[in-house]
User: What shape does this take?
Amino acid sequence: MTPLKNFFLFCSGVNIPILKRTPTDTNKYVGIGATIFFTGVFAAIAAAYALSTIFDSYWLVGIIAITWGLMIFNLDRFIVSTMKKKGSFFKDFGTATPRIILAVLISVVIAKPLELKIFESEIEAELVKMEQENYKVQDDLVRDRYTASIDSIESDIVMLKDEINTKQKERDALTIVAIQEADGTGGSMKRNLGPIYKTKKAAADKVQSELDNITATNGALIATKISKIDQLETNQAADMAAMHRVSIDGFAARIEGLERATHRSSAIFLANLFIMFLFIAIETAPVLTKLMVSRSPYDYMLDKHEHQYMMNHKVITSRQARDVMTEVRFDKETIPHKTDLAIAAEKELAKEAVKRRLEELTGKTSVSRSFLKRSNLLDG
Assistant: This one.
């Protein structure tokens, strides 16, 4: 086999020595290995694009992306290599279900960054709109902070002006009454500048004096309040000028932009959906292939190899268990008898030792007595 075939067979996780005995399955596992390899490549590319939106260092992006691709490659290889055909569809499906779910999750993780790259122009348009919306929110917050104060001051100014206008109307009414009394067109209907005219003229002059005072007082207050409004508007303009547009270009923002684009356009939604299904199909293809096809010679050989290994293991463990049980039984039945014999022997030895000691003591006593008799130190 060529080095490329050997590499793809390694990627598939197949047992090479067993596969050599079933050469008809070689192409199948070469295809499975190639699918696993390119899935890892797609994962590395997707990770590189996603990380490029976060880091500026190409070296860091490259190292992490390659590591991610190798991890996905190893995980796919593990998923496929641990799935074995048992001959029953339901058993095989039950075994494959967790692997299919994991493969789907991996495909979603791989597909999302690539979707962001494919729909990059549409996402950029959404990001611009998101920036504008964010800026408008900030602008509204600044305006709302000053609007209440400005409206309150303007309301006070209106009230002050209304007081002046009311007093002016009162003055004008009294002045007209005095004039009409003077020229005879109103009041007593007699043209004269008599006491009635003077009374009405005094009332008008009094209101005029009050108007002058109110105009002076309220005018000063109005000028002060207008100055406050000007200051608030100046501060508002300064705050708005100090605002800066936040650049929305992160990975999470791009995901949100893609979601907004899919909601706005059914074409983008369908395209995004098809891309997702494509990656799911690619990722689950090796598992589904092994699930759908019937058992091949390689599966039988692998099953036979594992069965022989399992039987040898059972034989060895059974022998070891039997030897242990025999030893345990032997010890259980012989140790009490050995203990009894040892106790009996110890008793005999103890008796012999005591007997010898008594004999020694008896002999020493006889010698002492004979010696004393000879020396007349002991009677009879």
